[in-house]
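Re: Re: token formats

Sure, here are both.
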Amino acid sequence: MTAQKVADLEAEAARQLAAGHPLEAAAMFRRAGRLHAAAGRSAAADAAFARYFELSPDAALVAEAAERHQAGDPEAALAGYDAVLRRSPNNVDALRLKGVALSQLRQFDAAEKALRRAVEIAPDFAVAWSNLGGLLSEAERPDAAADAYRRALALDPGNAHMHFNLANALVVADDPAAAAGAYRAALAFQPHHPGALIGLGHVLKTLGHQTEAISAYRKCLELSPGYGEVWWSLANLKTYRFSDDEIRRMQEALATEAMTEEARVSVEYALGKAFEDCKDFDAAFGWYAKGAARQRLRVAYDPVQTEAINDRIIDMFDAAFFAERSGWGHDDPAPIFIVGLPRSGSTLIEQILASHSLVDGTSELPELGRLAVSIGKFRSDGVTYPEAVRDLDRADCRALGRSYLERTRRHRGSGIFFTDKMPNNFPSIGLIRLILPRAKVIDARRHPLDSCMGAFKQLFAAGQTFSYDLFELGEYYRQYIRMMDWWHQTLPGFVLQADYEAMVGDQENEIRRLLDFCGLPFEEACLQFHKTERAVKTASSEQVRQPIYTGSLGSWRRFRKHLTPVERQLADILDRWPHEG
């Protein structure tokens, strides 16, 4: 807008003021101030805003509170917003900013109340709808967040950042196809948006569109060669091979002082994958070890705590406990839990089952862990899970099973059964039996050293904090075997052990065994699992889109001289392993 048009706007504000309409005049002065500021005319902007504040005293108070908010003191800002709202309960600016401050303080219910009141008063307030979307995302309600972002975009369709936020919400809502469309919309308005490019790459990988995913990742690297997450994302495709030039570019990026620790970790892991593909296994292990050591400093893990909680679970869930509670829980047979250590074949098992017409393949669902944490959470005596399960009655256990099914409903389609592939659920098998006694549990197992090395060379997006130190990894594996031995002893027949080596060596019989355990009739599509088109989020997404192959069997031997301490640590477990590794 030209200076003359801004002047016309200010003249109209003056006329509105003369006609006795101070609020309309204030709005015009505010708009004029923003336009002056955007054009770099700071003195004119200050003058226009001064008139705005003069005509709207509440606006000045809101601005003062917002300054405290921007200075990092949301609690002090809240006092200012509330002071305005006591005078003017329908002040949408104060309501919106109060909602944002409450969201930052994780008071989600109160924040939602304030933001919904703001959009009720001003339904065309795009920023307030966007803030509501951000709040709902923080509160882990991605479907509702997506709806709020859509309302914002209906009012401001050219806003790249809102399209980006919508895409992120759709990813969490398990709608990768719609997320891809939203990322593309963001890029249409802002082609050099690195977050949208990498987000698009991630969802295209999930959907199996590898060539397009690689293209998106490469465009992101053209804009930011030091973007470590993108280098690791290419490596994490597993089937991607880095060129010599790309290896050189990664090493050059590491030489720059500006690179963050997070980015360095990602590039070091990517270089590990690059040199492993080049069959320089010593160099590959060096890069993996360097990345793991750096990442270990960035995460919190206590192996003593892991052992202690497992001790408590074993003490709680014994044979007598289950005998006293026979027939308890919700009797729906729908869930099929796949547990084990990561990188041990769980995605392959999920892909086989998801190829069946009666089964929905979902993902690694967090709901069971959240239910466990909720048991006893608000008890005044401080008793928590697992000991708190002792005081659950039959109705409580049925309600917990029903709650799990309700919480997971949004991840499911029309199948009678569904998979939950959260590997870390293995300590919670007793809880599964208690609240969902007809569920199925499959233990995806692989040669112990293949399993450990596979986890060690994987940079996880979140969790699996035990995997960045070889000794801690070995100890965690021992705890895993200890827990699985306990469940097989205490709940005989409740868990099926599915060995990756057996699946590779005798595919059809092992798949039939898997389906029989789940109570599913045989379907040929399960043998042709690699042809099944579905979204796969995990690191094995490209591998399970290929037929089973033997190339990864015994891959730990490439790094054997580096794994000698772990081999000794797991000697008794290795003696029990029935397959050649």
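Second one below.
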Amino acid sequence: MNVLVLPYIRTMLSFRLCALVVFACVNLFAQSSVAVIQSLSLHDRIAQLIVVRGYGDYPAPTDADYVRFLRWIQDDHVGGFIVAGHIRNGNVIPAQPFEMAAFINHVQTLAPLPLLVASDFERGASMRVANTAHFPYQMAFGAARDFKAVREFGADTAREARSLGVTWVFAPDADVNNNPANPVINTRSFGEDPNAVAENVAAFIDGAHSNPAFPVLLSAKHFPGHGDTAEDSHMQLARLDQPKERIESLELVPFRAAIAHGVDSIMTAHLAVPALEPQPIPATVSHNILTNLLRDELNFKGIIVTDAMEMKGVALLFPEGEAAVRAIEAGADVLLMPTNPDVCIKAIEAAVTSGRLSAARIDQSVSKILEAKQHLGLFENRSVNLDHLTANLDDNQEPFQLAQTVANEAVTLVKDDKHLFPMPASTAPCLVILGEGAFSSRGETLARTLKRKVHSLKVFPANSAMPDSLLAAYAAQTSSCKQVYVAAFVTVEASRGSVNPEGGLSGLLTTLVRATAPVALISFGNPYMFKDFPQVAAYAATFSTADTSEMAVAQAILGEIPITGKLPVSIPGLAKIGEGLSVPAKSKPASNSVQ
């Protein structure tokens, strides 16, 4: 036989085998994704458009949710899963790196086609994974005004993600937060200035795409902009009630930058935008917003992924199957976290059979997903090398140093009438910690660090679960304090619906402010707290609840680092964007700081 004919015969045999066993057609896929699509049933094509809720470690094999998850992977053949954190006692429990990577490797072996593995690494891998660099929230980067650090942050996030087996990073957040009452974006945004947000978004994308050894998909969110809303779309349909001209000049600016810098995907928002869509429906199911605006006007060619379909911003309006069909009709390529993927698959399949959706429309999205998997190299190797995990994560100290540097640079001092930064000479300072939930560990790093240097420091850990009587007793015990530093941890969490202190914490803070000792209010999280307590003697913000931010504040109080941060947002009636007092570091710790 002519040896020149052999390659042709091998290719034809490969094609026939691919029609029977999809995952064996790697070489053919390199030539054409059409062959893979044609080898899939309509059910399996639709399933590729679904990313389900998953795990970051090994659950109990008898766990009902885990059994269902395995069915989605092995029987329904969904296209991927998102690593969601486990919640225990109200706190998200991060996964261990090695266990997470091993688990992802295991799940990849169960799927006929390689899976996209996603996660919300807005703060790097530490958002879901233990023993990784504790990067602060995005708004801290906005306060630090360090674009080089943002690029490095993007590169570190891509390296961490890919080392763990995560291939799709749902970041950066491209929302412009200009509504102080926003309960769900807040510090997740880089800030209030659309041009500054756009620069940060672009820097993150450039950094994350800079190392071809760690390719990841990125997703700018939440289109067309969730920053000027007062509702949490996890709980209800949010609303962006601004004219189109304002949306064009503000909300869309960072998304244009993201597209220009090659962002791989854009996540939709479950919010109504009357200026863009006259019907009272979320952007996720709006053809006007996803196709006419994002595809046609903004010329976005990448993947459009919905926000979680289980969120009430869409789930309260439509039955699950109908919501899935509408999202595909609108222009979405991927449905994220539906409650019942099988219901969605059947509904979309029925829509194709009836002619409501065309098979070509499904194939258009499937092609994007398969091409993304090819770009990531998943058809060649879908597992990660566990031997390299320690070197890529634990042994690399640069991300840990970067995280602390940004947290230090982000500390912003808005007011200091009594010169409480750094801590003045005193033998009786007090630290009151306003935590969230009975099991909160917030403030421990701050208290421990200060206590090592200021032995006379009295610490009062309060939380929202405490009865008013105990909080009142705390307030009475601070009567002997010469200065009171209040560390307020008010985090942005899904379905919380507010960025105000919970329980009796606001009452405790009011009592402290009305007392004799000057109060320095330090906001770890919501930077807008100052508007509710303008009478405090000092106000500082970190824009983050990360441990690195606690360490940064401790050093700022002790005068060990300079305070250089500038507000990335305005505080109505009190402070403008770019404001912030500059305080140099002490040449050495004051002698009376060490008791």
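Confidence is low (pLDDT under 50) at residues 1-31, 494-498, 589-595. Residues 411-593 form a domain with the Rossmann fold fold (CATH 3.40.50.1700).
- S.
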